[in-house]
Specification:
The complex is a heterodimer of chains A (112) and B (139). Chain A is of the alpha/beta class and 112 residues long. Chain A has 4 helices and 5 strands. Chain A has a single domain, classed as Transcription Regulator spoIIAA (2-Layer Sandwich), CATH 3.30.750.24. In chain B, a hairpin with a 3-residue loop joins strand 4 and strand 5. The chains are: A alpha/beta (112), B alpha+beta (139).
Chain lengths: 112, 139
């Protein structure tokens, strides 16, 4: 059964959030909490999404709220390693135009 | 097959699993399974967030969601039923996605995903009972 496991770490000055499982209206609170935790530590964030099975629009909302905060502070959020399935959601909802989406964390770090 | 489950966000993973298992057995591609998963999840989320969580007068034993899955010759039919006030997602206009994203808002995307990911969607309100959303997806 889908649940959510998120780890936050630092790689130099970049905050790395690794997301595993599903972000839906039930788990979005945890997702939001971890985003804010990372934001309090770094202005540039990579979200590693290769373990993300599912994201609902509630999750996209939390992501967008954090993105707005980060942008105000002059930083950025880069999304790395998302599956084709998750990519389709981002493309369909128009979010691919807002976020920088790359294949790997290494690629994301060089994007700042 | 019908799943009757508490109208709480805790139920969402079970609802997705229930529908996905049935749809997978029908032979849908992984691509389309992802679309079906999102549509049913967003339909249930709307009920929980915008009906049950906002209407304290609904008795506890009626705060349930029923999800019925049916095999069609050319696909799947999902019916998502609640016992809340009338709400017709079919009547919700599609957002102008370009402007929506520029404004950095995400409200209304749930219904949008239901419409865009499913091939057909209908709404029925049974007075004194609740809403039935019927969605179909073809192979």
């Amino acid at each position: 059964m889908a649940d959510l496991n998120i780890t936050v770490s630092m790689d130099g000055a970049v905050g790395i959030i690794a997301v595993k499982g599903s972000v839906d209206a039930h788990t979005v609170g945890e997702f939001d909490k971890k985003l804010k935790e990372a934001l309090s530590k770094a202005k540039n964030i990579v979200i590693e999404m290769s373990g993300l099975d599912y994201i609902a629009t509630a999750g996209l909302g939390a992501l967008m709220a954090s993105f707005n905060e980060v942008k105000k502070a002059g930083g950025n959020i880069v999304l790395a390693g998302m599956s084709d399935k998750v990519r389709k959601v981002f493309d369909t909802m128009g979010f691919s135009k807002v976020f920088k989406i790359v294949g790997s964390v290494a690629e994301a770090k060089s994007a700042f | 097959m019908i799943l009757r489950i508490a109208g709480k966000t805790e139920s969402l993973a079970r609802i997705r699993e229930f529908v996905l298992t049935f749809a997978r057995e029908l032979g849908f591609s992984e691509d389309k399974l992802g679309e079906i998963e999102m549509a049913v999840d967003e339909a249930a989320t709307n009920i929980i967030r915008h009906s049950y969580n906002e209407d304290s007068e609904i008795p506890e034993d009626r705060r349930v969601i029923e999800v019925e899955v049916k095999k069609l010759d050319n696909g799947i039919e999902l019916q998502v039923s609640d016992f809340g006030k009338p709400f017709n997602p079919v009547g919700v206009p599609l957002p102008d996605l370009e402007r929506h994203v520029e404004s950095k808002k995400t409200h209304g995307l749930g219904v949008f995903s239901m419409k865009v990911f499913m091939d057909e969607m209908e709404h029925q309100y049974l007075p004194g009972v609740g809403n039935i959303i019927t969605m179909r997806k073809f192979f």
